Amino acid sequence: MDYAMAQPSSSAIDNKDGSPVTKAYIEDVMKEYEQNDTFMVKNMSSEKALSFGDNCIAEVFRVKVDGEMTKDGKVVEMSKSVIVKKPFRDDKNTPPEMFKFESNVYNKVLDALESVIESKLPVIRSIKAEENVVVTEDFKDGGWALSKRREGLSQEQAAKVIKSLAMFHAASIVLSKSDEIRFKKLSQHVQDQVYSLSNAELCKKTLADSYAVAKNFADEYLPKANEEEAAVIRKFFSQTSDEMYNQAKKATEETPDFAQVFAHGDCWANNFMLKEDNSGDHALLINLATVCLASPARDLVYLFATNPQPVNKTALIQVYVSELHKNLSAHKIPNNIIEQFSVEFIESEVKRLKMVALLTAMWLLVPISYTTYPTVEEYNKLERKDKPQLVAQHIDNEFYLRRLMEVLLENVS
User: Fold this and answer.
1) Strand 261-263 vs strand 272-275: parallel, antiparallel, or unpaired?
2) Which residues pair with 294 in a beta bridge?
3) Do residue 116 and residue 50 come from a single domain?
4) 132 three-state secondary structure
5) How far is residue 367's CA from residue 396's CA, in Å, rounded to a whole number?
6) What is the mean pLDDT of the chain?
7) Range of the domain at 184
8) Residue 168 phi, psi dihedral angles, 5° rounding
9) 71 strand-pairing partners
């Protein structure tokens, strides 16, 4: 939440009428998408697709385009809706570095993964991805929607997300085993981990803010807590946020080499879509700015820590391993490699990454709990000690406290 809203500097994208992109820019994008140089935009309208609290690094717009193009000698009219994502800028007009990584993933990594498995991955692909704007297809009209984050995922819905993660991870394992040199080259285009040196200071700052909010709620609840709750509160907050960060970083760095995959890196409710009618057997993964080299359990930990509904995690891990094995077997990966990714191994990785689960919950519990949103400027101008009071005005306090205690009781041993 350290980025102030500002327009990207590219003149092709700047637009004075409040639209996220110019008509000329969208026209160029659609020509490339339709592979037709005759495409012309006749009308264009836009609306916010997400509120600030739904995406803290970018503004997200839904742009509706009415246009026409010449095809087989005939003029064809068409209407299409696309999603335009533009990063917030800091006071030096610099976008988050992760936006650069997102364009790399769309432009380089996904093509390589899909080519090696010779099929499409369950992700929403970009139409155009640059460091100052990402344009993707809009799947809302196809019946896809973000889950309701405070309601969370049922066992069945969580299994669909798990299957999509397994497919994504399997593709990177196939690539790493079939073309290790290419895999290593592509690894340079993603974050080595979310706790990397390149964003360490930002991570520590935002974590310290989240820690202050959580500690404020926990301290207020402590006089009413039972013995077990009081014990985990005191144990957890006996550490500083920097100490927790270092523990999570160390755990991430200790992932065995064979288990390094391209993980989504930020697998919570705002980064995947499910069919509104609950059909289909998988989810769509979106927002790929945080794809990183990590343990496959990293994504499972994020999903478990941010899902308010009680689910059978053991059963979901079994679903994950089954889907992973199925995809690896389909691409002739040797059994001795497949067997390394056993249920027991994934369970041990989830346990090893408990501090990552705790930090994930602290980081994301605030945006999950928002009912209204403070402005970026309003939040950033406050000292850390004053931010818990502002956050408390905008979140579902009862929900936040309940989830905080559930996560602490489950993960603080």
Assistant:
1) unpaired
2) 261
3) no
4) coil
5) 10
6) 89
7) 98-123+146-411
8) -65, -45
9) 74
Residues 153 and 64 in one domain: no
**252 and 303 housed in the same domain:** yes
Number of domains in the chain: 2
Q: Residue 300 carries which side chain, given as an amino acid letter?
A: L
Tell whether 272 is covered by a domain.
yes
Largest CA distance in the chain: 78
Contact by Cβ (8 Å): 287, 106: no
CA distance 255 to 203: 20
170, 262: one domain: yes
Per-residue CA distances from 358 to 296, 344, 355 (Å): 17, 22, 5
Contact present, 283 and 274 (Cβ < 8 Å): yes
Q: Are residues 105 and 59 in the same domain?
A: no
366-387 burial code (b ≥16 CB/10 A, e <16): bbbbbeeebebeebbeeeeeeb
Are 86 and 408 a contacting pair, CB within 8 Å?
no
**Cα 408 from chain centroid?**
22
CA of residue 82 relative to chain centroid, distance: 19
**Interacting residues of 123 by C-beta distance below 8 A, sequence separation 6+:** 110, 168, 284, 285, 286, 288
In a domain, 11, yes or no: no
Give whole-number Cα distances, 40 to 46, 126, 192, in Å: 17, 20, 41
Residues in the chain: 413
pLDDT at 259 over 50: yes
31 occurs within a structural domain: yes
- CA dist 109 and 187 (Å) reads 8
User: What CATH code is carried by the domain that includes residue 61?
Assistant: 3.30.360
Q: How far apart are CA 137 and CA 148, in angstroms?
A: 21
What does the radius of gyration of the chain's CA atoms come to, in whole angstroms?
Answer: 22
pLDDT in tens, 147-197: 888 999 999 999 999 999 999 999 999 999 999 999 999 998 887 665 555
pTM, two decimals, is 0.91
